[in-house]
Specification:
2 domains; 0% strand; globular
């Protein structure tokens, strides 16, 4: 009920209010609340004992980092859908991509650290074989493979395609090729991210190896 309420309120704000820093901050805060509620309905809230709080907080941070990453990808995909942008739009796009690079590095660090913490509670060292012998583990392993692919695409965007777009700013004739490459990469990365979300929704309903 809390998630539905804050999500509805965020939607109303996005539809009715003019885009502004204050409205985006409020909408983002509501989104953080909605995303955090998933942890209380999943494995993150099931751990008992002293590690319960650590697991819950780790699960929330993991969800937040994933939401920011995929949300940014969707935003970039919407920006890149313009087939013939004017130079000012290309400059703004390059600035946004370049500015997000440092945020992206932080998100990766959070996802890796919290992912390891969650795996410690849900898989455990003594049940590491559960990664390939249980349905939960196999789906988690597939998620890790796809996450690695997203890291590769993100690295290509940061170190190759984004600098390439920056160089294209001095040669407007090169806009098309640079934007096409970015559009393709962001589309693939977004699709992989959505597949990961579907996998998480699936194996989140299964018993982890530590519970077997």
């Amino acid at each position: 009920v809390l998630r539905a309420g804050v999500a509805l309120l965020a939607t109303i704000l996005a539809v009715m209010l003019r885009p502004a820093r204050a409205s985006w901050i409020v909408a983002a805060a509501l989104g953080m609340v909605a995303t955090a509620t998933f942890a209380w309905m999943g494995h993150g809230a099931a751990t008992e004992g002293p590690g319960g709080v650590i697991h819950l907080v780790s699960d929330i941070l993991h969800s937040w980092a994933g939401a920011v990453w995929i949300g940014a990808l969707v935003a970039f995909a919407l920006i890149l859908r313009t087939r013939s942008p004017v130079p000012a739009e290309v400059v703004a796009l390059h600035r946004a991509l370049h500015g997000f690079s440092s945020v992206g590095a932080l998100l990766v660090a959070v996802l890796v650290a919290t992912g390891l913490a969650n795996s410690w509670f849900l898989v455990g060292v003594d049940r590491i074989d559960g990664l390939w012998t249980t349905p939960y583990g196999r789906l988690l392993s597939l998620k890790l493979v796809l996450f690695t692919a997203m890291l590769g695409l993100a690295a290509a965007n940061r170190f190759g395609l984004t600098p390439g777009l920056g160089r294209a700013l001095a040669a407007p004739d090169a806009y098309a090729a640079a934007l096409t490459a970015l559009r393709r990469s962001v589309a693939i990365e977004t699709a992989v991210g959505l597949i990961i979300l579907a996998l998480v929704a699936w194996f989140g309903t299964l018993a982890p190896p530590s519970a077997l």
